[in-house]
Amino acid sequence: MLNQFLLIFTRTQYVLGQSSLKGNGLGMEPETFKPITAWDAGVVTEFIAGDSDILVQPRQSLNSIAPAIRTARVSEYWSMVCPESIAREVRFGLGELQIRSQVLAGDIVSLATAFLDQFGLPQAKLRIEVTRSQSCPKFHCDYLNVRLVTTYFGPTTQYQYAGEDPVHEAPLYGLVFLKGHKHSTHRNTAFHRSPEVPIGEKRLCVAIDY
Q: What is the predicted pLDDT for the residue at 37?
């Protein structure tokens, strides 16, 4: 099973920049640095330096994860993660939520790794949540620097631009980067909220922030 997990992680297309897998908790020590392509690092860098408070990046869907999420336990798991602990914490967190999906685990590991690389962080907060309710019904901005949110199952994050009425919905599996009040270029130009979850349905989202 571990070898299958490593294979999935190695082949995933969602990794960023130039980074070695040595010491990432997966036991892999390649001789050369491997390319990382979780998202366009240049686009995210421009977003961080600019005046916009939200960046939404669509991406390809993940196959075969829905059945594992439908039977998941409704709860949340969060932990501070560093490069050495990401894989371990993701496996443990999904286990606590009773989700068995190597594809999902590999994707969350690669996103968390890319997040640390993009922002040059030694650690970040990772939260994996399975919910049946709308946890944050009001549009708001969080007191942090940057948060990355992606929804793997169910209704997705909603957002609204300041001074405008339309409510937008992020694409399923899309990457939503949100600046918080602590960020130096935050301008209160956009706000977000969690969506309503239909009765009897579930939502799985992952948030990474610092």
A: 56
